[in-house]
Amino acid sequence: GNSSLSGSDTKTAAGSFAIAGNLSVSDVIFEGGVTLTTFNGTTTLSGNGTFNFGDVSVTSTLIDGGVSVNVSGSWTKSGTFTSTGTTIFKGGTAQTINASNFSNISFTGAGTKNIAGALTVTGNWSNSGTISTSQLITINGTGSQSIDNGTSSFASLTVNKSSGTATIANNDLTVTGDFTLSSGTLPRLSC
To answer: Which of 84, 87, 111, 146 is the most exposed place for a label (fewest CB within 10 A)?
Structure first.
């Protein structure tokens, strides 16, 4: 069923749990801790609260509803993830991110982010941590996008934008494998 959390404090999960309905968090911090949250129904996230999860498994349909989702553990997706918000991987220890699609994605925290599957990003890519990957990253939004990979390298990068510009922000862009510019504009490119 649907769940709604409100108040002015932190609501902490006591253990692993599954969500099969909508989750609304208003004026409260939802703390999933280090536990596994499984989205096994059609779930839309909403509200002005804070969504903090440990490990996340999307086995059915998760719609982020434009909110920011903080993940401190691993990410697996065998279902559908519809993203218009920001997913922030902020673990202090190593995290594994399996194949998925994201709108805006951000990597922070001391733990290495191990990208274990191809990622597709329709919004901004921001990294202030350490990324380890041998996977393909595809940037394919229709509007303006920013790519900031910090000091980490892409193993394989494709920019395939039907419209708009992808901008390299702050640092040089390093790709150790294949780089493909299928369509779109990527200013400030040098090889």
So the answer is: 84
pLDDT band at 191 (very low <50, low <70, confident <90, very high): very low
| Among 74, 128, 125, 127, CA closest to 104 | 125
Query: Are 116 and 137 a contacting pair, CB within 8 Å?
Result: no
Could you say which DSSP state residue 186 is in?
-
Tell me how far apart the alpha carbons of residues 28 and 162 are, in angstroms, rounded to a whole number: 39
| Report field, pTM of the whole predicted structure over 0.85 | yes
SS3 76: strand
Let me know: does 64 contact 80? Beta carbons within 8 Å.
no
Write out the two tokens for 152.
Answer: 């980490």
Contact 48, 30 (CB under 8 A): no
Q: Which residues contact 14 (CB under 8 A, 6 or more apart)?
A: none
- Any idea how long the chain is? 191
| DSSP 8-state code for residue 148 | E
